[in-house]
């Protein structure tokens, strides 16, 4: 997707934008947007749509990557996203998005009906809570050496590679020297290598019958390479929606995910081994 360079068409509507998954902020603008379909390499104009012009990016690795932008897949009753716009204009047959990490650095985003060729086993479907973002209920969580007792909380599914967790959990990792600041910048943390062989657990129990699991390899950012584990982390404080975790890549790296904008549901199935 690209925005044609026609500055006379750009309209700043003056409304502020704030990310639901990190501390990024910006403003809403309107411009003519063109879309390139990778299936046939044909481009078409989607028309004038609203999108957020990000001014401050809270989580980033390379400043040059900020120029590329991100496609927002979140739910918002007031602002249609790219999936809904493509469906309304007849460019896709169903308002859905399939996400599959066919390679560690190459997630496949397929807009339209569910695509299963990279998936194995049956899909497990959960309802999205509320009208904004992809938020769903859960009842237990485990990350590194932390494991919660059973309780009700919510998770937001994010397209980013960072992980947000309860503040007391993040502080416990830091205070016990399980993780340490990476290069003393941003929100990057590195696992204490002397603890690598500890009995870590990574999972989210969605209900008594279904668990989304992960592993140490899935939380690390592949761009750092080597044998160390480095990841982005931020704290979540108590909030009205009872959200405790915001996660993305650590789930996508192991699961096919289908976002159904018509039924407001999220489906998970194991990703085939590549």
Could you explain how this protein is built, in words?
- The protein is mainly β and 274 residues long.
- It folds into two domains: 7-111, no CATH class; 124-271, Acid Proteases (Cathepsin D, subunit A, domain 1).
- Helices cover 9% and strands 44% of the residues.
- It has helices at 82-88, 167-175, 216-219, 249-252; strands at residues 11-18, 25-37, 42-56, 96-103, 106-111, 119-127, 134-138, 140-143, 146-147, 153-157, 163-166, 179-181, 188-191, 203-207, 210-213, 230-236, 243-247, 255-260, 265-271.
- It has a five-stranded antiparallel beta sheet, with no helix packed on it. A four-stranded antiparallel beta sheet has the order 9-8-14-15, with no helix packed on it.
- The longest helix is centred in the middle third of the chain and has 9 residues, at 167-175.
- This is (pine wood nematode) hypothetical protein.
- InterPro entries: Peptidase_aspartic_dom_sf (IPR021109).
- It comes from Bursaphelenchus xylophilus.
Summarize the entry for a quick read:
9% of the residues lie in helices and 44% in strands. The chain has 274 residues and is mainly β. It comes from Bursaphelenchus xylophilus.
Number of strands: 19
Number of domains: 2
Strand content: 35-45%
CATH architecture of the largest domain: Beta Barrel
* Strand order, largest beta sheet: 5-4-18-19-6
Output the CATH topology of the largest domain: Cathepsin D, subunit A, domain 1
Q: Main sheet, how many strands, which sense, barrel? A: 5 strands, antiparallel
Radius of gyration: 19 Å
Low-confidence stretches: 1-5, 59-68
State the CATH superfamily name of the largest domain.
Acid Proteases
Mean pLDDT: 84
Which structural class matches the secondary elements? mainly beta
CATH C-level name of the largest domain = Mainly Beta
Write the element-wise H/E pattern from the N-terminal end onward.
Answer: EEEHEEEEEEEEHEEEEHEEHEE
Helical percentage: under 10%
Indicate the overall shape. Answer: globular
Question: What's the number of helices?
Answer: 4
Distance between the termini: 27 Å
Organism: Bursaphelenchus xylophilus (Pinewood nematode worm)
InterPro entries: Peptidase_aspartic_dom_sf
Protein name: (pine wood nematode) hypothetical protein
């Amino acid at each position: 997707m690209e925005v044609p360079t026609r500055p006379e068409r750009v309209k700043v509507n003056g409304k502020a934008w704030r990310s639901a998954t990190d501390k990024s902020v910006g403003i809403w603008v309107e411009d003519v947007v063109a879309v390139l379909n990778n299936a046939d390499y044909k481009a078409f104009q989607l028309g004038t749509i609203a999108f957020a012009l990000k001014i401050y990016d809270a989580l980033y690795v390379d400043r040059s990557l900020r120029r590329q932008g991100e496609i927002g897949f979140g739910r918002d009753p007031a602002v249609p996203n790219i999936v809904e716009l493509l469906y309304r204009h007849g460019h896709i047959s169903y308002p859905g998005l399939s996400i599959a990490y066919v390679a560690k650095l190459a997630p496949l985003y397929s807009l339209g009906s569910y695509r299963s060729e990279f998936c194995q086993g049956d899909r497990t479907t959960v309802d999205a809570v509320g009208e904004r973002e992809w938020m769903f209920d859960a009842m237990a969580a485990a990350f590194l050496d932390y494991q919660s007792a059973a309780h009700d909380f919510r998770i937001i599914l994010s397209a980013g590679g960072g992980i947000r967790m309860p503040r007391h959990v993040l502080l416990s990792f830091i205070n016990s020297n399980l993780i340490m600041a990476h290069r003393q910048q941003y929100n990057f943390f590195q696992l204490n290598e002397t603890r690598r062989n500890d009995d870590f657990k990574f999972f989210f129990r969605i209900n008594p019958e279904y668990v989304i699991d992960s592993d140490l390899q899935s939380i690390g950012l592949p761009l750092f390479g080597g044998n160390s584990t480095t990841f982005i982390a931020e704290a979540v404080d108590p909030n009205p929606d009872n959200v405790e975790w915001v996660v993305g890549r650590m789930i996508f790296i192991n699961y096919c995910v289908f976002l159904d904008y018509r039924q407001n549901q999220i489906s998970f199935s194991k990703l085939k081994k590549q």
